[in-house]
Amino acid sequence: MRQILTCTFLLVAAIPLAAQSKGSSIVLKTSWANQFRNELSIDATLTVLGLNKGQEVDGDIHGGSRTNTVGLPMVAEILNGRATQQAAGRTALDPATNAQKSVYGAWRLWFEHPPAGGGTQCQTFSGSTPPICEHQALTGADSNPAHSFEIHPVLEVGGVSVARSSLVLTTANTSVKDTDKAFQDYTGKNKILHIVRSASALTLTSITLQDNYVEIQVRVTHARIQTHRQKDGKVDGGFVIADVISSSDPEQVLKKDLRLFYYRDSEPGDALDNAKAGSSFRLLGMPRINLDAVLTSSEGKSSLVMRVPFEFVIVAKLKDE
Question: In this predicted model, what pLDDT tens digit does every residue of 217-264 receive, in sequence order?
């Protein structure tokens, strides 16, 4: 694989000054974005630098990496990682004996932990990091470097599957957000994505985005479309399209036609893989940038400003109230 083309210098320079002053940027290879735009997951080899202690309010365990086959500073995060059931997964992710890890899970692009004060992170596969991306290097703790890319949730690490046991909601996760409050945040007037595009590179600029885990009541409008694992091409899950219903008014639709991705071998996968139009579910979801919407909206354009397009990775099926 080659280092991202030098045109990224021009792409980043072309971002409106207002956008640069109010957010951070990430530069992706256009071919990479096209490869994963309609997929749930990614396989990657990581050099893991360290693990967090699992004391955060979500109960997750994450390992930080600055050298990996994704080409970006990132974390790999096990849902409910501090739970007893995830002991084998924690051990498999721990760099204490071997820092090189094979990780499989849902890719997640979300401007939650970008470089402090802004800056640009470039997807780099070989060679040195372009000078324009100097902020991406060596900032933040080893367990949580400054990043906007994650493998979260991790589904398998070092051959140890953690998917079915971890894709549930436990009492350890006290960070779950209410639907109405979270969607008010996601769709706020300041949630703007600036896009600069060329044939080889895609530059995205946004302010910090939050609200990791959100409880959502959904009504399916289109049955599932299958997704495939990068490593072997086998079906690993899919996505359905659904309307999100207000938590305060069951007659109000907060968001129409939202893509909900799921891993097939999990409790939410059991439900969504066979869901029909009209089916309703109460779910726990995690937002990520909708790369398909980014690529579709920017097709044939050199730059574009749009509301942050998002979709959800579903990480638990909740009991009906």
Answer: 999 999 999 999 999 999 999 999 999 999 999 999 999 999 999 999
* Long-range pairs, 210-213, Cβ under 8 A, ≥24: 210/112, 210/185, 211/177, 211/182, 211/185, 211/186, 211/287, 212/58, 212/112, 212/175, 212/177, 212/286, 212/287, 213/58, 213/173, 213/175, 213/176, 213/177, 213/284, 213/285, 213/286, 213/315
Residue 126 · residue 113 · CB < 8 Å = no
What b/e string do you get for 10-40 counting C-beta neighbours within 10 Å, with b at 16 or more?
ebbeebeeebbebbbbbbbbbebbeebebbb
Name the token pair of 229: 């694992």
In percent, the amount of the chain with pLDDT more than 90 equals 74
- Max distance between CA atoms of the chain, in angstroms, equals 54
Could you give the C-alpha distances from 260 to 33, 38, 288, in angstroms and in order?
18, 11, 10
| pLDDT tens, position by position, 153-185 | 999 999 999 999 999 998 888 899 999 999 999
Query: Has this prediction a pTM greater than 0.85?
Result: yes
